[in-house]
Protein backbone atom coordinates (compact mmCIF):
# COMPACT_ATOMS: atom_id res chain seq x y z
CA UNK A 1 0.00 0.00 0.00
CA UNK A 2 1.32 3.42 -0.97
CA UNK A 3 0.73 6.12 1.65
CA UNK A 4 1.17 9.87 1.27
CA UNK A 5 2.21 11.49 4.57
CA UNK A 6 0.69 14.99 4.71
CA UNK A 7 2.08 16.80 7.79
CA UNK A 8 0.74 19.98 9.34
CA UNK A 9 -0.67 21.64 12.42
CA UNK A 10 -4.12 21.94 10.75
CA UNK A 11 -4.93 24.91 12.96
CA UNK A 12 -7.68 24.71 11.88
CA UNK A 13 -8.11 22.31 8.98
CA UNK A 14 -9.53 24.18 5.96
CA UNK A 15 -10.72 23.42 2.44
CA UNK A 16 -7.28 24.13 1.00
CA UNK A 17 -5.84 21.22 2.98
CA UNK A 18 -8.63 18.93 1.83
CA UNK A 19 -8.42 19.98 -1.83
CA UNK A 20 -4.69 19.23 -1.99
CA UNK A 21 -5.07 15.91 -0.17
CA UNK A 22 -8.02 14.95 -2.38
CA UNK A 23 -6.09 15.73 -5.55
CA UNK A 24 -2.98 13.77 -4.64
CA UNK A 25 -5.00 10.79 -3.43
CA UNK A 26 -6.84 10.57 -6.74
CA UNK A 27 -4.20 11.66 -9.24
CA UNK A 28 -0.80 10.83 -7.74
CA UNK A 29 -1.23 7.12 -7.16
CA UNK A 30 -1.71 6.98 -3.40
CA UNK A 31 -3.90 4.35 -1.82
CA UNK A 32 -4.31 6.59 1.23
CA UNK A 33 -3.27 10.03 2.43
CA UNK A 34 -2.51 10.33 6.14
CA UNK A 35 -2.98 13.68 7.86
CA UNK A 36 0.01 13.79 10.20
CA UNK A 37 -1.03 16.19 12.97
CA UNK A 38 2.00 17.88 14.51
CA UNK A 39 1.97 17.95 18.30
CA UNK A 40 1.56 20.81 20.70
CA UNK A 41 4.74 21.73 22.50
CA UNK A 42 4.15 20.61 26.13
CA UNK A 43 6.54 23.27 27.40
CA UNK A 44 4.79 26.19 25.72
CA UNK A 45 1.21 27.41 25.52
CA UNK A 46 0.78 28.92 22.09
CA UNK A 47 -1.93 31.53 22.01
CA UNK A 48 -2.68 30.64 18.40
CA UNK A 49 -2.60 26.84 18.50
CA UNK A 50 -5.76 24.87 19.16
CA UNK A 51 -5.21 21.92 21.47
CA UNK A 52 -4.40 18.56 19.93
CA UNK A 53 -7.72 16.95 20.79
CA UNK A 54 -9.70 19.73 19.10
CA UNK A 55 -7.57 19.67 15.95
CA UNK A 56 -7.98 15.90 15.79
CA UNK A 57 -11.76 16.11 16.18
CA UNK A 58 -12.05 18.79 13.47
CA UNK A 59 -10.15 16.64 10.97
CA UNK A 60 -12.14 13.55 11.91
CA UNK A 61 -15.34 15.46 11.22
CA UNK A 62 -14.00 16.82 7.94
CA UNK A 63 -12.95 13.53 6.34
CA UNK A 64 -15.93 11.34 7.23
CA UNK A 65 -16.99 9.15 4.31
CA UNK A 66 -13.81 9.41 2.24
CA UNK A 67 -11.96 6.15 2.75
CA UNK A 68 -8.63 7.33 1.33
CA UNK A 69 -8.14 9.87 4.12
CA UNK A 70 -6.70 8.73 7.44
CA UNK A 71 -5.32 10.51 10.51
CA UNK A 72 -1.94 9.87 12.08
CA UNK A 73 -1.04 11.13 15.57
CA UNK A 74 2.19 9.18 15.86
CA UNK A 75 4.27 12.28 16.60
CA UNK A 76 2.28 12.92 19.77
CA UNK A 77 3.99 9.92 21.33
CA UNK A 78 7.50 10.48 19.97
CA UNK A 79 10.25 12.40 21.81
CA UNK A 80 10.08 16.17 21.48
CA UNK A 81 10.94 18.11 19.48
CA UNK A 82 9.48 16.15 16.58
CA UNK A 83 11.61 15.57 13.50
CA UNK A 84 10.26 14.32 10.20
CA UNK A 85 13.09 11.83 9.74
CA UNK A 86 12.25 10.17 13.07
CA UNK A 87 8.56 10.02 12.18
CA UNK A 88 9.13 8.47 8.76
CA UNK A 89 11.54 5.89 10.13
CA UNK A 90 9.09 4.97 12.89
CA UNK A 91 6.26 4.59 10.38
CA UNK A 92 8.37 2.32 8.23
CA UNK A 93 9.20 0.20 11.28
CA UNK A 94 5.54 -0.04 12.37
CA UNK A 95 4.19 -0.76 8.87
CA UNK A 96 6.93 -2.62 6.97
CA UNK A 97 4.58 -3.62 4.15
CA UNK A 98 3.58 -0.02 3.39
CA UNK A 99 5.41 2.44 1.17
CA UNK A 100 5.51 5.93 2.67
CA UNK A 101 6.06 9.15 0.74
CA UNK A 102 6.38 12.62 2.18
CA UNK A 103 4.02 15.28 0.81
CA UNK A 104 5.07 18.91 1.29
CA UNK A 105 4.43 22.32 -0.23
CA UNK A 106 6.98 24.12 -2.37
CA UNK A 107 7.48 26.61 0.47
CA UNK A 108 8.74 23.77 2.66
CA UNK A 109 10.82 22.37 -0.18
CA UNK A 110 12.60 25.72 -0.40
CA UNK A 111 13.80 25.33 3.20
CA UNK A 112 14.19 21.56 3.45
CA UNK A 113 17.95 21.98 3.70
CA UNK A 114 17.30 23.24 7.24
CA UNK A 115 15.51 20.07 8.30
CA UNK A 116 17.24 17.54 10.52
CA UNK A 117 18.91 14.86 8.38
CA UNK A 118 17.15 16.11 5.26
CA UNK A 119 19.59 14.24 3.02
CA UNK A 120 18.65 10.99 4.77
CA UNK A 121 14.97 11.76 4.13
CA UNK A 122 15.54 12.40 0.43
CA UNK A 123 17.72 9.32 0.02
CA UNK A 124 15.34 6.91 1.76
CA UNK A 125 11.85 8.33 1.14
CA UNK A 126 10.24 9.62 -2.02
CA UNK A 127 8.84 13.14 -1.73
CA UNK A 128 5.98 14.82 -3.58
CA UNK A 129 6.07 18.62 -3.74
CA UNK A 130 2.91 20.57 -4.52
CA UNK A 131 3.10 24.23 -5.63
CA UNK A 132 2.39 27.14 -3.31
CA UNK A 133 2.01 30.78 -4.28
CA UNK A 134 5.34 32.62 -4.56
CA UNK A 135 7.14 29.27 -4.57
CA UNK A 136 5.58 27.61 -7.60
CA UNK A 137 8.67 28.03 -9.82
CA UNK A 138 11.12 25.74 -8.10
CA UNK A 139 13.98 23.56 -9.19
CA UNK A 140 13.86 19.89 -8.31
CA UNK A 141 17.01 17.97 -9.10
CA UNK A 142 16.70 14.82 -7.03
CA UNK A 143 15.72 11.36 -8.26
CA UNK A 144 13.44 10.75 -5.24
CA UNK A 145 11.54 14.04 -5.52
CA UNK A 146 8.80 14.93 -7.99
CA UNK A 147 6.65 17.98 -8.54
CA UNK A 148 2.86 17.72 -8.46
CA UNK A 149 2.43 20.14 -11.35
CA UNK A 150 -1.34 20.11 -11.77
CA UNK A 151 -2.53 20.19 -8.18
CA UNK A 152 -4.95 23.00 -7.27
CA UNK A 153 -3.09 26.03 -5.95
CA UNK A 154 -5.52 27.43 -3.40
CA UNK A 155 -3.47 29.88 -1.41
CA UNK A 156 -5.50 29.59 1.74
CA UNK A 157 -3.63 30.26 4.95
CA UNK A 158 -4.79 29.03 8.34
CA UNK A 159 -3.18 32.13 9.85
CA UNK A 160 -5.33 34.37 7.62
CA UNK A 161 -8.43 32.43 8.66
CA UNK A 162 -7.53 32.77 12.34
CA UNK A 163 -6.97 36.50 11.93
CA UNK A 164 -10.30 36.87 10.13
CA UNK A 165 -12.16 35.08 12.94
CA UNK A 166 -10.45 37.27 15.52
CA UNK A 167 -11.56 40.29 13.52
CA UNK A 168 -15.16 39.10 13.69
CA UNK A 169 -15.42 37.97 10.06
CA UNK A 170 -17.66 35.10 9.02
CA UNK A 171 -15.40 32.79 6.99
CA UNK A 172 -17.40 29.60 7.36
CA UNK A 173 -17.05 28.68 3.69
CA UNK A 174 -13.27 28.55 3.92
CA UNK A 175 -13.65 25.63 6.32
CA UNK A 176 -15.26 22.19 5.98
CA UNK A 177 -18.93 22.00 6.95
CA UNK A 178 -19.44 22.49 10.67
CA UNK A 179 -15.80 23.30 11.46
CA UNK A 180 -16.34 27.07 11.61
CA UNK A 181 -19.06 26.70 14.22
CA UNK A 182 -16.95 24.36 16.34
CA UNK A 183 -13.95 26.67 16.16
CA UNK A 184 -16.11 29.56 17.34
CA UNK A 185 -17.51 27.41 20.14
CA UNK A 186 -14.02 26.88 21.55
CA UNK A 187 -13.73 30.63 22.12
CA UNK A 188 -10.07 30.29 21.22
CA UNK A 189 -10.11 32.85 18.41
CA UNK A 190 -12.58 35.30 19.91
CA UNK A 191 -12.84 38.67 18.15
CA UNK A 192 -10.47 41.25 19.57
CA UNK A 193 -11.49 44.94 19.43
CA UNK A 194 -7.92 46.08 18.80
CA UNK A 195 -7.87 44.14 15.54
CA UNK A 196 -10.48 46.32 13.89
CA UNK A 197 -7.80 48.44 12.30
CA UNK A 198 -6.40 45.36 10.57
CA UNK A 199 -9.63 44.15 9.02
CA UNK A 200 -9.03 45.91 5.71
CA UNK A 201 -5.90 43.85 5.07
CA UNK A 202 -7.71 40.68 6.10
CA UNK A 203 -10.57 41.47 3.71
CA UNK A 204 -8.06 41.93 0.89
CA UNK A 205 -6.54 38.51 1.66
CA UNK A 206 -9.96 36.85 1.74
CA UNK A 207 -10.95 38.51 -1.55
CA UNK A 208 -7.78 37.15 -3.11
CA UNK A 209 -8.68 33.65 -1.88
CA UNK A 210 -12.15 33.95 -3.36
CA UNK A 211 -10.68 34.90 -6.75
CA UNK A 212 -8.37 31.87 -6.67
CA UNK A 213 -11.20 29.51 -5.77
CA UNK A 214 -13.50 30.96 -8.45
CA UNK A 215 -10.77 30.55 -11.06
CA UNK A 216 -10.43 26.78 -10.46
Give a structural overview.
By secondary structure, this protein is α/β, with parallel strands linked by helices. The chain has helices spanning 15-27, 52-62, 84-94, 106-109, 118-124, 158-166, 179-186, 199-215, and strands at 2-8, 32-37, 69-72, 99-105, 127-130, 145-147. The protein has a six-stranded parallel beta sheet, sandwiched between helices. Strand 1, helix 1 (15-27) and strand 2 (32-37) form a beta-alpha-beta unit. Helix 6 (158-166) packs across helix 8. The protein is globular. The two termini are 31 Å apart. The mean pLDDT is 88.
Please outline the major beta sheet.
Answer: 6 strands, parallel
Which assembly state applies to the chains in this document? single chain
Gyration radius over CA: 18 Å
Q: Tally the beta strands.
A: 6
How would you write the strand order of the largest sheet? 3-2-1-4-5-6
| Overall pLDDT score | 88
Poorly predicted tracts of residues: none
Helicity, as a percent range? 25-40%
Give the structural class. alpha/beta
Order of helices and strands: EHEHEHEHHEEHHH
Query: Percent of residues in beta strands?
Result: 5-15%
How would you describe the shape?
globular
> How many helices in DSSP terms?
8
| Termini separation | 31 Å
Amino acid sequence: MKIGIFPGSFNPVHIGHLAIANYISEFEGYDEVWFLITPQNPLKRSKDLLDQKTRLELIEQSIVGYEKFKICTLEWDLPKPSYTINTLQKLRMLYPKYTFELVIGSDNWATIHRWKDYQVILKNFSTLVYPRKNNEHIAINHPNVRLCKNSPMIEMSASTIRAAIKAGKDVRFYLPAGVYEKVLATGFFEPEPELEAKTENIEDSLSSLEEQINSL
